[in-house]
Amino acid sequence: MKDANSPHTAHEHQRDSFGSSFGVLVALAGSAVGLGNLWRFPYLVGENGGAAFILIYLGFVLLIGLPILISEFIIGRRSQAAARGAFRKLAPDGRWHVAGSLAVLCCTLILSFYSVVGGWGIEYLIKAFRFDFSSGNTPGMATMFSDFATSTTGPLICHTVFLGVTGLIVIMGVKNGIEKFSKVMMPLLFVIMIGLAVRSLTLPGAKEGIDYLFRPDWSKVTSGTFLAALGQAFFSLSLGSGMVITYGSYVKKKENIVKIGTETAVADTLFALIAGCAIMPAVFAFGISPGEGPGLVFTTLPYIFSQLPAGGVVAILFFLALLLAALTSSISVLEVIVAFTIEEFHLKRKGAVALCLGVIWVLGALCSLSLGVLGDFKVFGKNIFDLFDFASANVLMLIGGLLVVLFVGWKLGRSVIHDELTNSGGLKIPVWLLDTILFLIRFLAPAAIAVIAIFQWI
Ligand code: PFF
Questions:
Q1: Residue 140 banded pLDDT, cuts 50, 70, 90
Q2: Structural domain count, the chain
């Protein structure tokens, strides 16, 4: 076996990889930008008082999210291996590979419920094409949504289609599937979102929504705000889930990790803010409370679409954007599990995809049914859907992120970080920047995650 810390191994040459720097960026940004931005971020902003939450979120992205992202990138690119294999390669003698297994478990849970919500996106896109949002009242929209989400067949069919499309893209591989799809879809998504934001920001009465997004009211901040903001930063940047490790393992040595990592975080944050601008001004313009919770996108927005001039077209564009964003993310979650399966069980890509889809289909079906016929089945007081959401976003991602920064900061250490961030001396990165990143990886990020996790769990 070659030196475990060696950046190059024989394996590297047989692996699929991204074709260009732009491809890496759109794939990473595609993973980060998803339901987290279009569905979760707006309702969390609404529930947690607007601008103050956003500022705390931005601070977390910069000080905690970015160092974790860079750390995962280092692990992936240096090892050129999937989540579990990466730890095993870089630290063959320890038990660090358990961190990789946790990441794969985390992705399995995420994709199970993510695919159900993605399926709702398909149903709502179809509804938008049929101009179904014309009943013009919020109770009507709420009933429409809960009738659908709690039913059996419809959501299962949509879950199957969503997962099937995700699988088809992943079967095509990293360069020909994931990269190609993201390269076309991300710019399209950007254009649609900008159009939607302009529409919303130019509504009469939009100003109140803009104030809500950009004028902080610190009196609304509680300890829960910090938890929600950190959880969202993790979820939105796809951290602690092995995604950046896996995508990082398809990245060539010449890419600049700090640059691509920062661009990914900026793109993700920008998309979240644009989604906020597309949703909040419209919510205020129609005199609706922003704190509607998770139903915001599926109940409040359809009502707004029904009231808006040309709302039918806006609805189609919005749910199309939601679906594209969800797909560029779901392929990344599936890739983590598939790459692991290929490597650990020596399967071909097609077989690995089929196996993973089978498992996730069953778990996703349970998530979907737990909102309806299996609603009485509870674990720790939560139905399966909420349990998977909580266990992944609030527990496993935090543990994964913590292990990643501890591993890179303390096990790999300064010289490896330096070597990876400068591409073995080929890139000039100012010493103060390297030292700051090292400090964040070693001290600030682990301490912040530990404090917030402890508050969260007790
Ligand atoms: N970041 C995605 C979103 O905001 O919707 C969710 C996600 C994707 C989480 C990929 C984890 C992951 F590995």
A1: confident
A2: 1
